[in-house]
Amino acid sequence: MYHFRVEVRTGNVYRGALASSRLLWHVEIVERERAGRRNMSLSERVAPLLSVGASLAWKAVPSVRLSGRSVGRFVFPPTTNHTFVPAAMLSRRHFLQTLGMAMAAAPAASSLFRRVPFAEDTSDGFTALRRGVGIFRKQGGTIGWLIRDGALVVVDTQSPKTAPDCWTGLRDRTEEALDFVINTHHHGDHTGGNGVFAEYTDRIIAHENVPSLMRAAAEDEANSVYPTETFETTVSEQVGDETITLRYHGPAHTGGDATIHFEKANVVHVGDLVFNRAYPFIDVQGGADSRNWISELETIHDQFDDDTIFIHGHANPEFGPTGGREDLLVMRDFLSALNEYVLQQRQAGASLKEMKQKTAFEGFEAFNFDWALSLSACIEAVYREQTG
Ligand SMILES: [Zn+2]
After folding, report:
1. What SS3 state is found at 248?
2. How far, in Å, is the centroid of ligand 1 from the Cα of 282?
3. Are 257 and 233 in contact (CB under 8 A)?
4. Which residues of 79-115 are buried (b: 16+ CB within 10 A; e: fewer)?
5. Which of 57-61, 178-182, 348-352 has the lowest mean pLDDT?
6. CB 153: neighbour CB atoms within 10 A?
7. Percent of the chain's residues with pLDDT above 90
8. How far is the CA of 118 from the centre of ligand 1 (A)?
9. How far apart are the CA of 213 and the centre of ligand 1, in A?
10. Domains of the chain as residue ranges with CATH
11. What b/e string do you get for 120-143 counting C-beta neighbours within 10 Å, with b at 16 or more?
């Protein structure tokens, strides 16, 4: 069994194993260059790693497992002459040279390695995760979906512009009737497409604070489509052979955030409780409470296990909108650092303007990327919270 670390020029990080009948290769792949990635198949994206060696050409590997999940047969593009060298066939010296070449190609890569629940995304924005649960990404908050025999459920609806594409994609995948829609919270980038789905179901479920928060925030109230059913602390729904449980843990990102647990799939949509390695929106006007948010993330972390896949409302593209429960603790630690910073600055007599000069927190530099929300907005929100 050999460990390889190889850079591939696209944008994500994959970790896994290439298996043949006789050899199992552990491979860590760092995608670097995002341009053009959308329409590339997994084979095309991973192919450059195969230029590492030069003595034995493999036409195909029986299976590829990434993060312990099989993603199916891996076939090298026939038009390119990729070769991969099983270390067993090389001298030790040559193997180390080959490995060294691979390592040299990815000098800063090790800090990026992490567990990635992997499934191939498609050019229409759909990614299957596990047991009929998946995500749709286009613009705004990540949409979650469930497709099973006798079940079709949608979590969040993005915008009137992108919701029709989501519906079209769902219809390509199933003919089941839409059971209901769930809103993780009231924000327009999660509820804006409610009207599109309301044509196919009478049921939109959300926490009981969502309708009033939506009304208060609505720019275009006449065209907003509100939840038709609400819950207080928790509610469960049986759909097909899946059980979906919604929970409310108190104010956090807003005053009405729900987590959506697909129990048998062990997948949880946490809405905007996680901005994965991205500066979050702390909606003080909309009932947010960043201190409670911190303890809530810990509660949710402890509620699930290491196999649980989490769907995040928003994400730094380098880290992606799905992950494991450790991502919740990164969000928690950022919110803690933020609260401590503002408190310390206030105690030291700094003005809000002075506090907002801060450009990054140590250990959270990854949050600085081309993104709509800023650290200074986070600082201001927590300042408003602390000073009432
Ligand atoms: Zn939000």
Report:
1. strand
2. 8
3. no
4. eeebebbbbeebeeeebeebbeebbebbeebeebeee
5. 57-61
6. 27
7. 65
8. 25
9. 12
10. 2-112 (no CATH), 126-331 (3.60.15.10)
11. ebeeebbbbbbebbbbbbbebbbb
